[in-house]
Every structure is written in C-alpha cells, then in structure tokens.
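User: Thanks for the earlier help. One more: Pilus assembly protein PilW. Can you show the sequence and predicted structure together?

Assistant: Of course, both are below.
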Amino acid sequence: MKPSALPIPVRFARYSGNSAMPSPSRQAGLGLVEIMVALAIGAFMLGGVLSLVIWVSQARTELNKTSEQIENGRYAIQLLSDELRLAGFYGASQVAASSYSAPSPCTTAMASLGFAFTDVGGAFNAQLPAALQGYVALSTTGDDVSCLSNARSDSEALLVRRAETSSVATATAGVPYIQLSQCQTDAKPMTANMDSGFTGFELLGKDCATSQKAELWPYVLRTYYLSDCDICSPSDGIPTLKVAELKEVGGALSIVTQSLAEGIEDIHFEYGMDLDTDGAPDCYVPDPRVDTAPAAANCPTSGWSSADAPSWSNVVSVRVNLLARSTEPSAGWKDEREYDLGRKDADGNSDLEGPFNDSYRRQVYSAVVTLPNVSGVREQ
C-alpha cells in the first residue's frame, strides 16, 4: 500500500517596491477650449469689477461737485446774512442820526466816509453814513466803482457800513475809528477820526477823567459784488462772490479785494422799506432810490425821498436771492431748468433766469434778513 500524498504548500508572492504595478490614469492638463473659457469668465468678472470701480469714482466725483456747490451757496448766503445783521452798528450805544450820507464804495479819505458832527445852537447834529447801499447794476451807478476789481458790469452789489464788534484801547495809524462818549459832560456823544494814538479822539470814559479816553471802534466798509473769475489773470472762468474792503495798508487807507465763494453766478437783492418809521418793512423794492412807489411793489405812496441817502436809511430788511452753480461741468447733464431770483419784469411778472442749456448744476438760495441796528431804533 502506497503512502498517502503530501499536500502541496501554497506560496504567496510578496510585493516588491521595484516591481511595477498597474496605476490609475494621470491628468495630462487643460485643453485650449478650457483655457479660453476660463479666460473669458475671468475677463467678464474683471470687467464687472472695473465698471463698478469706475461708477463709484464717477458718483463720488459728482457728489463732490454737488457738495461743493451746496457748501458755496450756503456759505455765501450765511456770510451775507451775518454781515447784514451787523449793518449800522456803530458801537455799544446808539447815536441818533440827524441826517444820512451815501458816499462812494471806493472812498479812501476819512473826510469822505460820510461822518459829520456839528453843534448848531447847542444842538448836536450827527451825519452818519447809511447802514447799507445797493446797486442794481454797477454799469448804471453814478458812483466811482473802479475799485471793484474785475466786477461784472451787470452785477448787483451791496455795500455794508458798520463798526467792528470789538473795541480797541489804542488807535493804529491809518485806520478809521468811531469813538462813543461815556461821560455826560462831553460836548458831543460821538466822533470819527483816523489819527494814531488818541490825538484826534477827545471823548471821555465813564469816570470823565482826561487820562482815560472812551474806547474806539474800528470802522468797516465792505462792498459785495460778483466777478466772472476767481483767479482773473489769466481768467479761470469761475463766477465768484467777492468783497472790496476798506483797509489800512502801509499806514494809509486802501480798497482790498478778496474772493469769498466760488460758483456764485447771480445775485438779487430786494430791500424792505420802512416808510412810516415803525421799524417794520412796508414793502420790498429792488431799488430804494426811486422817487415814488413802484407800481408793482404795493408800497405806500408817502415817505419817499428824491435823495439817495434818506432812501437807503429807510431800509430795515433785505431779501437775498443768489444762484450758485458747480465749478465744473457734469458729463451727461443738461441744465434746462429756470430759476426764480425774485426779479420782476415791467408788468410785475416773474423774470426767470435760464434755461442755460449747459452741463453745470445750479441751485437757488434765499434768505430774508432784518437789520436790527436800523429797525430797533425805530421801534422805540
């Protein structure tokens, strides 16, 4: 009997790192079509981002233009309002005027500023310059306006006279001052001069001692007008509100011009006339110098004067209307609107400004300002 067969052993093959094994297929890269699609999508997204950036930049630029126009308009109307409220202020106490004067805005001599003080039979008479004075058009005024540098000939102008709101202890040579007496024994309550020190100022203080003179108030004369340029040599073409101010330069009086607000394109003043001397305006007129009541103004028929100075002395309030425009044009904008500055034609209808049909943005600003230093005295 044959012995049984032994089982055949099973051998397992081991993997050697050097042996090759099958592996999954590898990605070889992007095709041309895929690259072009990716570039197109990227370009589209980049174009959208650039468009957004450009739109935001343009919006900010237009916002800056509008903000500047609003700021200039509001600043100009506030500046004129503040100045008008101080018109006719000649010091801490009020001296009643016996008469008024209306000197030229270009006056630089103390004797021509409109002050005069006389004693007639023991009665003190004071001639004072009117608190304000206006010009409907600089080309039609009979006064010398050559000191209003680069003024528009058809521009309205407003001249304001007053004293500074703070007094000084000593005088500076070449500066005009108003002195108000604080002593009852002084022969007159008020004087005006421009001598240095106290040579020309003899009014006394509260103790009536000759060693202590009454305080001095610097005199202010400012004329507000429009110009077609801010920088005029060469002209930048920006309409600008300017002021010509009486100032001391090198020990003498001179008219100094300064730009105040850019973009002020037009301005119109209407003057509230107090013809019954109760301190309240009876009507508003564009030119108080008329001898009779304007037909369209609904004014009282009495109280008018043929002289300019008394007419201006009856103004107790001013209605200010100004047109402010942006200093730079806006692309895609066309100004087809009309603006009402309060002007009237011969028939009493509104005389509107525009349309300008250009690319500048515009807005009208208005204010009615009472002259408390004029109206307050009349209310007493």
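User: Great, one quick takeaway?

Assistant: The chain has a mean pLDDT of 86.
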